[in-house]
Amino acid sequence: MKTYAKWRDIRNAGKSPERIAQMDAQVKADLRAMFPYRIVVEWSPVDECFIARVPSVETVAAHGDTPEVAVREAIVATELALEALAAHKRPIPPPGQRLRVVFEPDEGGWQASIPSVKGCRTWGRSIEAARTNIREALSLCADELASPEKVAATAVFDEELRSG
Fold it and tell me: Is 93 helix (H, G, I), strand (E, B) or coil?
């Protein structure tokens, strides 16, 4: 975790929170353009590294000293898993549904909404908290989605940052 904190501090030094959010959104948009599956990255205190999982391809998980390394390894593992599935004539899991998420600065935090899903809104003190909260809010939209928990777990978000 210290490695990631050091990298984050160096990358973000002297930048406004809005600029950091824009940079994060651009990196994620670039990744999504190249790789259609959602990747979940979490710190593992037991393994003392970052673990990247691809929920749509259940067998895929990878690790790394930084989130970027874990993501890169997960992409390679996913591509290999998909090749193996194709070679054995097994079904290829579809990428998660693509949903547009709008983030807007608010007093003391960020509002997040998914315009295509009626009533799917939330708030967080940071943009990261709002990202986490909007996925949870999506999982509760039972009236709008046939399988909200599955959609929330696998959805790929196209993020839009609006300035206040």
Answer: coil
29-65 pLDDT per residue, tens: 666 567 888 888 989 999 999 999 988 888 899 999 9
The residue to which tokens 């998660």 are assigned: 96
Q: Pull the structure tokens for residue 132.
A: 């986490």
CA pair distance 141, 145, nearest whole angstrom: 6
Of the candidates 44, 15, 19, 39, which has an alpha carbon nearest to the alpha carbon of residue 28?
39
Alpha-carbon distance 53 to 59, whole Å? 9
Task: Report helix angle 127-139 to 17-34, nearest 10.
Answer: 50
CA 11 from centroid of its chain's CA atoms: 19
CATH topology of domain 98-161: Double Stranded RNA Binding Domain (3.30.160)
Q: Which helix (H) or strand (E) holds 47?
A: none
